[in-house]
Design a protein that fits this description.
It is a single chain. By secondary structure, this protein is α/β, with parallel strands linked by helices. The protein has helices spanning 17-25, 35-38, 46-54, 72-81, 123-126, 128-137, 155-170; strands at 3-7, 31-34, 58-64, 99-105, 140-147. Helix 1 packs across helix 7. The radius of gyration is 16 Å and the shape is globular.
């Protein structure tokens, strides 16, 4: 299965986990597309991005949770690339049948993402807009790969998570 990993981290060089994940994925037969490196001025080449999406079966959005959402450039990318008539609506079936997988890192521990916990909502609830987007564009939403408490992980735990991430993303049976 041809896989595209879209990495959206505004400061990947300062990242611990997203950097390790991207580097691990680059060791495999996938394409790693780093949005903030590709578009430092946030001027997205929509046609190029749409052509890129057409070439893959599984699309992964990899990002750190920012204010209970995606980093701003990934949101802008979705707004500009996933257009009416191309990704949804009349004639907008170009992504239909592809898979969408979210790979997410969160600073807080998993216990903070429960009803009544520190953040009051589960991760599944917070990711609902991305799941709704997947439904709208006709992709099959794959259970997200999520790692919590990233600020507290040792270097060994970060590397283990990168290896688990690669195994998950590359699993043909998802």
């Amino acid at each position: 299965m041809k896989t595209l990993v879209i990495v959206a981290h505004p400061n990947i060089e300062q990242s611990v986990i997203n950097k390790a994940w991207a580097e691990e994925m680059e060791k495999h037969d996938v394409t790693v597309h780093r949005l903030y490196e590709e578009y430092p001025n946030e001027q997205i080449n929509v046609e190029s991005e749409q052509e890129l999406l057409l070439a893959y079966d599984r699309i992964v959005f990899q990002f750190p949770l920012y204010w209970y959402s995606t980093p701003s450039l990934l949101k802008k990318w979705m707004d500009e690339v996933l257009t009416y008539g191309w990704a949804y609506g009349t004639g907008g079936d170009n992504l239909r049948g592809k898979q969408l997988l979210i790979a997410l890192s969160a600073a807080g521990p998993d216990t903070s993402y429960v009803a009544g916990g520190y953040n009051n909502y589960t991760m599944s609830e917070l990711l609902r807009p991305l799941q709704a987007t997947s439904n709208l564009i006709g992709t099959r939403y794959i259970t997200p790969f999520t790692v919590h408490g990233v600020r507290f992980l040792s270097a060994e735990q970060v590397q283990e998570s990168a290896e688990r991430y690669a195994q998950y993303v590359l699993n043909e049976d998802l």
